[in-house]
């Protein structure tokens, strides 16, 4: 007799199979969406028209949806707002109790509903029709009420939900999220939105730090600068007073070398006090420009195994960068 316990899947294996199958089903849905966006397809033409409609709308993109679609709608609005497309979320139930006043005649409304029959969206749809406000629908049902009312229909391809028993929104909301991201990226490219603009909207956290420029973090003011003919004795005093372990060597207004604490130590056996700065300086020092990304400048410090960089403009020093400046600003 066969022991059935030897062939029965363990709870852990069953859980893993369910999880993997969920990801596979959603991946298949995303593949279908990518195919639906092929050049010349109905969805691709609708997306192009939607980008043009958003560009021509003088107001904001108002995104709305109920339930899980509402959570996706909030995320789409937030992504658009952070990438140069003014956008906001309006809850459809709240819209029916006064928040319709938040939607202006210059706005464009984007409504999300997998079935296209979400009852709570009806007042927003009617409001758009009454005041001639452009309506974009994201739905999976071409013959739904929402699809029929829309000026621009972004029709999601047919795709299975991860759970066939409950039909809980899984794949459908994943496709909505992906299509929203596709729209946001297409819009930012259309607007010429670049990383300087992105930095403006993301001044805090790691994203803000990643897009800071050298000019944002460098130290300006008095710098440890001298000429090549000064004695090492004087040079030591300049480096000590500067407090960053280095001094810049100037000639005719240009930075031509640097002397660091390390240079002093390496030359200790050369009757050091009888030498001048130009005798021990590093010629053609590593420098950066003010518009260099701070993250790139930090990478340069790490690659060169140095702690201080002079910032130059047309060869003249305008600031200093110390490794501590990056740490203080969160660029790491």
TrEMBL record:
Record carries keyword Glycoprotein: no
Keyword Metal-binding: yes
Domain called SIS: residue spans: 50-193
Keywords, in A-Z order: CBS domain, Isomerase, Metal-binding, Repeat, Zinc
Single annotated GO MF: arabinose-5-phosphate isomerase activity
Pfam families noted in UniProt: CBS, SIS
Domain CBS: 218-275, 281-332
InterPro entries with a match to the protein in the record: CBS_dom (IPR000644), CBS_dom_sf (IPR046342), GutQ/KpsF_isomerases (IPR050986), KdsD/KpsF-type (IPR004800), SIS_dom (IPR001347), SIS_dom_sf (IPR046348), SIS_Kpsf (IPR035474)
Alphabetized Gene3D superfamilies for the sequence: CBS-domain, Glucose-6-phosphate isomerase like protein, domain 1
Record GO biological process: carbohydrate derivative metabolic process; carbohydrate metabolic process
Residues flagged as site, Catalytically relevant: 68, 120, 161, 202
Chain residues that bind Zn(2+): 91
UniProt record similarity statement: Belongs to the SIS family. GutQ/KpsF subfamily.
Protein name: Arabinose-5-phosphate isomerase
Organism in which the protein naturally occurs: Algimonas arctica
Lineage per the UniProt record: Bacteria, Pseudomonadati, Pseudomonadota, Alphaproteobacteria, Maricaulales
